[in-house]
Specification:
The relative contact order is 0.20. This protein is mostly beta strands. It has no helices and 15 strands.
Length: 180
């Protein structure tokens, strides 16, 4: 018997915020007698690392389900089997209309300030501020705003340290978290 998985008609796009989010879908064609927690819809998606992730949604009789993930990237989800709790396919069904693509976009961060650090002390750099030469290396780093609680974003800099008198520019070269 054919089982139809219906995804949203519009492509779903949202922004990362460190919580699971995703898309709702409906399932039609499963006999009422099979709508219990012993049967599941088998979904898989490409996580970007050349292998598939298994994701199971229990068939509980509601006909409305959701697929949720956390990280920022584009996901293509495929529903391909009805399986039992031991991953055995229910050969009485086959799935049609089974693929959907949606995106969780990276969150934009803001630089809320700059600070300096050297053997002579630390401090905040405000617009137009100058630091005074003291024969020690000054390292300038950014303070980020908008990082979600529990996430870590490490920054690396081009030209982030200097010891001699002069005008310098610090540039953020890379950051460690692809959700931003």
């Amino acid at each position: 018997k054919a089982v139809t998985v219906t995804w949203p008609t519009e492509k779903y796009t949202t922004t990362y915020y460190a919580k699971e989010q995703g898309v709702a879908f409906t399932v039609d064609g499963i006999c009422d007698e099979d709508k219990d927690d012993s049967w599941r819809i088998h979904l898989w998606y490409d996580n970007g690392d050349y292998y598939d992730i298994n994701y199971y949604v229990p068939i509980d009789g509601t006909d409305s389900y959701s697929f949720k993930v956390k990280d920022a990237k584009e996901y293509t989800v495929t529903a391909n089997l009805i399986v039992n709790n031991m991953d055995r396919a229910n050969n009485n069904y086959y799935v049609v209309d089974n693929e959907y693509t949606f995106t969780i976009e990276s969150k934009m961060l803001a630089i809320s300030g700059w600070q300096y650090n050297n053997a002579g002390g630390t401090g905040v750099i405000t617009d137009g501020a100058e630091v005074t030469y003291n024969s020690k290396y000054y390292t300038v780093t950014a303070t980020l705003s908008g990082v979600e609680v529990g996430d870590v974003v490490n920054l690396s800099y081009d030209e982030g340290s200097a010891v001699s008198k002069g005008d310098y520019t610090t540039k953020i070269a890379t950051w460690s978290n692809t959700n931003y």
